[in-house]
Design a protein that fits this description.
The chain is mainly alpha-helical and 139 residues long. Helix content is 62%, strand content 0%. The chain is built from 5 helices and no strands. The protein starts with 13 loop residues before the first helix and ends in a 7-residue tail after the last helix.
């Protein structure tokens, strides 16, 4: 893969410069799309919903620059077990729209989302533990 700065010098004409700028912008946009797809795959391939939501919370704690322009709904929707209604619920818990970018989240909204993701994890974990407990055997 070539770096953006590896392009040959732009031609002296305005059309040549514009063409070179478009090529650089396209290359950068493709890199960002690929990186976001990689993060979405990482969220979707976690072993369970708890691990997936925990990774989403970690991402929100320190948003990588490549994900800063990503919509919150895209991030949350990539988590296992979080469908469109789950995205709406989680966003509503932080009083934010799912269409808001990760860069635009305030520290308070970010903290509320992290708390909501981790709270759901604790509840899901408790339900899993309760389901594993065998009922007492009648004698």
């Amino acid at each position: 893969m070539t770096a953006i700065t590896d392009h040959p010098a732009a031609p002296a004409t305005p059309q040549g410069r514009a063409r070179a700028q478009r090529a650089e912008a396209l290359e950068l946009a493709n890199l960002v799309r690929l990186a976001r797809a990689c993060w979405r795959r990482r969220l979707a391939t976690r072993p369970d919903a708890i691990a997936s939501r925990d990774l989403a919370a970690e991402i929100l704690e320190d948003v990588p620059e490549v994900l800063a322009g990503m919509d919150l709904g895209d991030l949350l929707g990539a988590c296992k077990g979080v469908g469109p209604r789950g995205v709406e619920r989680l966003a509503r818990a932080a009083s934010v729209r799912p269409s808001k970018t990760l860069r635009a989240l305030t520290p308070r909204q970010r903290a509320m989302l992290i708390g909501a993701l981790r709270l759901r994890n604790r509840h899901a974990h408790a339900r899993d533990l309760e389901a594993r407990v065998e009922p007492p055997v009648a004698e």
